[in-house]
Amino acid sequence: MKKWQCVVCGFIYDEAKGLPEEGIAPGTRWGDIPENWACPDCGVAKSDFEMIEISDAA
Amino acid sequence: MHSIVIIGTGLAGYTTARELRKLDKDTPLTLVSADDGRFYSKPMLSNAFAQGKTAEQLATQDVAQMQAQLNATILAHTRVNSIDTARHTVTCDGKTLPYSKLVLALGADPIRAPLAGDAADQVLTVNDLADYARLRKALEGAKRIVIIGAGLIGCEFANDLCTAGFSVHVVDPNPAPLNRLLPEAAGAQLRAALGRTGAEWHANTKAVSVNRAHNGYLVTLADGAALEADVVLSAIGLKPRVLLAQQAGIKINRGIVTDRYLQTSAPDVYALGDCAEVEGLVLPFVMPIMHAARALARTLAGTPAPVVYPAMPVVVKTPAYPIVVSPPPAGISGAWQVTEGEEGVRALFYDAQQHLHGFALTGKSTSEKAALTQQIPPLLG
């Protein structure tokens, strides 16, 4: 499971948690999210997200 | 063929360029920036300190990387002096640059409170990456912070700096924070939550002077209180940068006036972001910039596209008390219906016909954001 961060607002999409309130189930891989999906906080397009490392301590 | 010229490399300028390049890879593109042209996350300026992030860490790309990514020429540290709309040229540092289409993404200036005192000019504001670097430097060795203004940015800084261990005082003329956005019940809860993180509130008053003291500054309030501070931070709002447009004879009001196509009163000149007033709306938030930049990119690429604004809730980055608010549009009359419970405050703004036009959600209720947003009619449909 990976985490992806919005380059503009810092919102983090965590594959393990998904976004149940937007109908994206926990465990949904980034690649399986529709291409027209946008950051729920700021509207940035999916293509403008970046992957961030997961810290093992978390 | 002349270049498309974008003035400004903040979120509005760079997002327009990025969206344009998704549609048109080749048209010459020039961006002019008064600052160093690095790309950074603007919303993170007000919550990056507690995470220990430096300005360098927030800057994810430098000018060379942005030039390569955008296939564009970027003139950094370059200020545009004038625009000649008849000749389709801009002048910067004595050089004349022709444009085919011009985009004004100038941003806004922080409003400066009218303060007396011999240290009034030492009050900091944070509206760009260089400001953030200055703030971080000022905070080295500091303990006591006074924040003037309890709007979005003031509250976010209050939360961030309390978390980072500073002693924080917040001064605001209203009874509760986020007064313009939130119904009072939610504002009172935010105030209490930030109080639990250590913020001291000075409500219903304002700062009148900032003077040098033997050890830092002394901030005097209208209610007579005097606060000692090492750093004074002002966050009382933004004023769109309109001067350049005004001097070029372009129509301005509160911001640079544009129509639905982001076109100003001058042919081939467009404006978006914090400097623009789009169909009467000045919206200095990220989400409107994203919608505007996408529409403008299509227009610049040859297919005129009007801006559509859905309801655009604002997430308030106060982890001590999570809030999301979709303020009811100006001119809609109605009333808040507020319920408070274990899940937080849930305030819904209905008109007389019981149509939803806005909401404010706190705590666990924020998970209802997506569902409620869908019920609100678009701001510009």
Describe the structure.
The complex is a heterodimer of chains A (58) and B (381). Chain A is mostly beta strands and 58 residues long. Chain A is 0% helix and 19% strand. Chain A is built from no helices and three strands. Chain A starts with a strand and ends in a 6-residue tail after the last strand. The model of chain A has no long low-confidence stretch (mean pLDDT 85). With 381 residues, chain B is α/β, with parallel strands linked by helices. Chain B has three domains: 4-108 and 239-300, FAD/NAD(P)-binding domain; 112-234, FAD/NAD(P)-binding domain (3-Layer(bba) Sandwich), CATH 3.50.50.60; 322-373, Enolase-like, domain 1. Chain B is built from nine helices and 25 strands. In chain B, a hairpin with a 2-residue loop joins β7 and β8 (95-104). The model of chain B has no long low-confidence stretch (mean pLDDT 96).
Question: Descriptors for this entry?
Answer:
heterodimer, A: 58 residues, mainly beta, B: alpha/beta, FAD/NAD(P)-binding domain, Enolase-like, domain 1, 3 domains, seven-stranded mixed sheet, five-stranded antiparallel sheet, 25 strands, globular
In brief, what are we looking at here?
Helices cover 0% and strands 19% of the residues of chain A. Chain A has no helices and 3 strands.
SSE topology sketch:
The complex is a heterodimer of chains A (58) and B (381).
Chain A: E1 3-6, E2 12-14, E3 49-52
Chain B: E1 3-7, H1 11-23, E2 29-32, E3 39-40, H2 55-58, E4 59-61, H3 63-70, E5 73-75, E6 80-84, E7 89-92, E8 95-104, E9 108-110, H4 129-139, E10 144-148, H5 152-163, E11 167-171, H6 184-196, E12 200-202, E13 207-213, E14 216-221, E15 226-229, E16 231-234, E17 238-240, H7 243-247, E18 256-258, E19 269-271, E20 276-278, H8 286-300, E21 314-316, E22 323-326, E23 335-341, E24 344-350, E25 356-362, H9 369-373
Parallel strand pairs in B: 1-2, 1-8, 2-5, 8-19, 10-11, 10-16, 11-12, 18-20
Antiparallel strand pairs in B: 3-4, 6-7, 7-8, 9-17, 13-14, 14-15, 21-22, 22-25, 23-24, 24-25
Helix pairs in contact in B: 1-8
